[in-house]
From TrEMBL:
Record domain MEDS: where: 21-165
Molecular function via GO: protein serine/threonine kinase activity
The protein's name in its UniProt record: Anti-sigma regulatory factor
Organism (species): Nonomuraea cavernae
Start and end residues of each Histidine kinase/HSP90-like ATPase domain: 209-323
Keywords: Kinase, Serine/threonine-protein kinase, Transferase
Amino acid sequence: MRQAEEGSNPAASDPASTLIHQALLYDGIETFAAAAARFCLDGLARGDRIMAVVTPPNIEALEDVLGADAARVELVNALEWYDAPGRTLDACGRYVNTHQLDHPRVRMLGEPVWRGRDRAQEAEWTRYESMLNAAFAGSPVWIMCTYDTRALPRHIVDDARRTHPELVTGHGTTVSPAYTEPSEFGHSRDLLPLPPPGQDYGTRHVFDADLRLLRQYVTAWAAAGELPAETADRLVIVVNEVAANAVEHGGGRGDILLWTEDDSICCDIRDAGRPDGEGLELFAGYLPPTSATARGYGLWVARQLCDLVEVRTGQAGTQVRLRLRRT
């Protein structure tokens, strides 16, 4: 067991080119503020770039401890930052790319938002936490994600132990014995089937390589449902991108089902395709593609435009479920 002395962290001695990804498990706002302030002050002393993405009460607590040094930390409201897993992961990547050349490390203190999430959203945000390990592997990045063990459900905290290589508590820093590599963690989640659609849905529509007809079908469905123009446009774009993948990798055809669920638009796209390589498919759409023709581009676009994207691949084929807020 590696333990950190007060005001220090053994991970600080790791090479700057090595990703450090930790879960701070705290049981009170004072514990949070003390650990978060140490993380920030240590980074400032080393010339690191620091962004703290936490909820407003924790921003206030952190500012109180940091004092004048708070002005040297970029403070961001977590309720605005954590809006969709794909968009947030991309925003992290852009932040790192912007600052990594001018600083020894880029540090990000993050407080994922779990309140108000349903189980599907929880699962994808947990997968986001796991994907950080793949997205920033070998990068000069130090990420500390905070978890309030008093307020969060046990399964959320248990998953934090699986998605973070290191744990930080009031007793120090330790290697997480439950940590699971992103490929293995993602595969375990993919074994869980998606729930059936809600009651408000129609019939499945079959499509082939003529995606123009599919776009017309989706446009007509959106018009019948009186969707806002911006939402309808996003829906047509993401359906076209995912369907193009289905045509290319799923035998030239697929089917689509559209329905509404509370204030969301939901869409299932199925095809007969199966993964050629487990690792490639598990990471597809999470990391920015090198070009518009690169594999995974369609899923990446979907993750940027949708509020939730779920993918399941098995012997029966591939199922992609998209969710967009109506407004």
